[in-house]
Amino acid sequence: MNWVREPICSYPILWEHGPAGSGKSSIARSIAAMCKKDGLLAADFFFFRTDNSLNNTERLMATLAYQIMLAIPELRHTISEATLRDPFIFSSSLESQLQNLIIHPIANALPPEITPNARLIILDGLDECGD
Asked: Taking CA atoms, which of 35, 45, 50, 123 is between 20 and 30 Å from 15?
């Protein structure tokens, strides 16, 4: 939580690692819950090997973009516009979806004076993603 609350992040990615069954997902879920309560969570996605809707990237970017729109209302219009401009965006490459639905809106649509509290994105269980 100290890393999450740093006003200026010394490094943008925190990689939690350890052996299978050591509690990484439990920690990630606890951090997500605390951050959501405190308004710090922008989005989360938990891959899960035995759930066909959670063991691939098919819904990843749509889920993250939707959660970001809820957490950072200033991005709603820009993210919505991206889907209107390209109705097939969710069929495009993961990289294209990431650029158009998340990176571009965050980098270009927020006025410089707005620094949203919700800035944490949690991805868990990447090793459980088949693709």
From this structure: 50
